[in-house]
Sequence to fold (349 residues):
Amino acid sequence: MKRAFKYRFDPTDAQAAELSRTFGCVRKVYNMALAARTEAWARQERVNYNQSSAMLTAWKKTEELAFLNEVSSVPLQQALRHLQGAFANFFSKRARYPRFKSKRKSRASAEYTSSAFTFRDGRLKLAEMAGSLDIVWSRPLPEGSVPTTVTVSRDAAGRWFVSMLCDDPTVKPLAATDAAVGIDVGLDHLLALSTGETIANPRHERRDRARLAEAQRNCARKEKGSANREKARRKVARIHARITDRRRDGLHKLTTRLVRENQTLVIEDLTVRNMVRNRKLAAPSVMPRGQSSGAFWSTRPPGTGGTWWSWTVSSPPPSCAPTAVPCRTGCRCMSAPGRATAERSTTGT
Fold:
């Protein structure tokens, strides 16, 4: 089974500069290819991966885009493949139309296939890179596993990561069980299970709330575009990263326990993102800050009927479940019995 192993690493100044240049080239190629395909779409034409690859070859020959030749060609080709996958998801109605990548907001990453890196004796060296990466081996790779794909990324806090996709022969399917559990996101609790158990919301942001507010005020006082502004922004990003790491770790442990104890997980098909954007539903009296802080739905499989990592089926009920009973007038609002059912389901009673 394919499995990704993610590690932090500390690049040298030369490696950091080369990777930053590669990230910029990947973003440039992706945006240019997306613009070309969007223009073709307006002309009711289709552009496939092979045509995009031919465009990339032509771009490299121009004087203004000659810098694309200074980085490895593999991450640029992979960017085109990712764009092809994004359009495939769009045409299959699984995702929205692809969007342009932003230098400040988009994730900085580059993907290398086996032809663009060497991995020998625990040392990873990327194409067009001086020396191997200084990886922090927090856990070993499975014995006998060799990376087939390597993805290098940098988060907003300035931390560098490398993700290695390997064949893991040690992964075994979990033993089948007859247990099943229903999961509902609550307002007072993170989760309410059909077994009667409630999972408290850890509220990971609470301990750093004052520190985050102070860092944000300090950042707002700095002049835009200055070096001090960038330092302050990094400090804010590091606090956010610490909160995110704690949240992800807690959710991973929780979902692992649910998957191992149950064969079937029935999850409400609820879109918390839209609820948070709704100023009436997102009011503190309706949805406390801890609801979005818990972020349980970030672990939910994409789409309906998806599967979690350990092969346990996730089966959301239809939107016409008793928690969303429309009134008899046909206006599609929730009736009083439906609201009462939703309140009981939320509190786990």
In short: The longest helix spans residues 227-261.
